[in-house]
Write a structure and sequence with these properties.
It is built from 15 helices and eight strands. It has helices at 5-19, 22-31, 46-58, 66-74, 95-106, 116-121, 126-135, 143-147, 151-164, 175-181, 204-222, 238-246, 262-265, 282-290, 292-295; strands spanning 37-41, 62-63, 83-90, 110-114, 187-191, 228-230, 251-253, 274-275. The two termini are 13 Å apart.
């Protein structure tokens, strides 16, 4: 945990939520089948991921995979009780050791949603250029600011900064690593677009190509059907949902931090998720995984 004022305050708020029973009551409702815990990570270290897995196991959760969720959507099996689904966004190189190895060891399913361009070309994720440029006082643009502008303008700014910066290290998995981890019976590979744009800021043509080309690329790598998707930044509109439907995707995940109830699963192209963060206290992440953190907003979550 980074010792910032925000994290110190958050730790005490989280401890209060745990001590006063909010988390336990939430777990009890999940075990009764009120909802599935839908959790996602980005680039956690192995210690954090193991801690989260062990906490969920200790609380009696059963781990389900994307295929099980599809069967629930189709009505082939009932809505599960005490279930959790774990997803991971982007396809960071560290995911192989920090997530996949743990999934194999503990025999728990995970779904990893991959942005194909960083994997194939070895370039960093676009936001790394923005952060590096700010650190080196080359630009004052923030990642959040660039998420709000037209995609072509964002791409142009990133390309300009890329020319001014020293080469940045690789961040994503390699194609060979994607092929390797896809062989695990506990890993599902899904699509997270090609270049990780904000889809709602893209033209129709660009948004469609990001959704379709990433699917085709991954299927060519792993020789398996790719029909699950996660929206970059959680941003989507009805247009993106229609593109997914027309191109044989069966599920897609948002980042809306609400419980995945049976009613909400009917909208299986907007599956909500709770985010686990890498640089906060474990007490806060307990509250995040259980969803309590997002129901009682004592402080900003980021």
């Amino acid at each position: 945990m980074r010792l910032t004022l925000r994290n110190i305050v958050s730790f005490f708020v989280a401890r209060l939520l745990i001590i006063t029973g909010f988390v336990n009551r939430t777990n009890q409702r999940a075990r009764k089948g009120n909802y599935i815990l839908s959790i996602y990570f980005h680039n956690p270290n192995q210690k954090l991921f193991i801690r989260c897995v062990k906490w969920l196991q200790k609380k009696g959760y059963s781990f389900i995979d994307v295929e099980t969720l599809k069967r629930v959507v189709k009505g082939e099996i009932p809505f599960p009780k005490g279930a959790v689904i774990i997803t991971v966004d982007d396809g960071w190189g560290n995911n192989k050791n920090n997530i996949v190895s743990v999934a194999n060891q503990y025999q728990i399913p995970v779904a990893i949603f991959i942005a194909t361009q960083p994997v194939e070309e070895g370039i960093p994720y676009w936001w790394s250029y923005i952060k590096n440029a700010r650190q080196n006082e080359i630009s004052c643009c923030s990642v959040e600011e660039l998420k709000k502008i037209n995609n072509e303008e964002r791409v142009s700014i990133v390309a300009m900064l890329q020319k001014q910066l020293q080469p940045l290290p690789r961040e994503a998995l390699t194609v060979e690593e994607v092929q390797e981890i896809a062989k695990s019976p506990y890993v599902t590979i899904g699509s997270h677009t090609v270049s990780h744009p904000i889809l709602t800021k893209c033209s129709d043509e660009k948004a469609l190509s990001e959704i379709l080309e990433s699917k085709n690329k991954i299927e060519g790598w792993i020789h398996k059907t790719v029909d699950a998707f996660a929206f970059p930044n959680g941003s989507f509109s009805q247009r993106e949902i229609q593109f997914l439907q027309k191109n044989n995707y069966r599920l897609s995940f948002s980042t809306e931090p609400i419980y995945l109830t049976e009613a909400r699963l009917k909208g299986h192209y907007t599956i909500p998720r709770f985010e686990v963060l890498e640089n906060v206290s474990f007490a806060e992440n307990i509250c995040r995984m259980s969803g309590v953190w997002f129901q009682r907003r004592f402080i900003k979550s980021k």
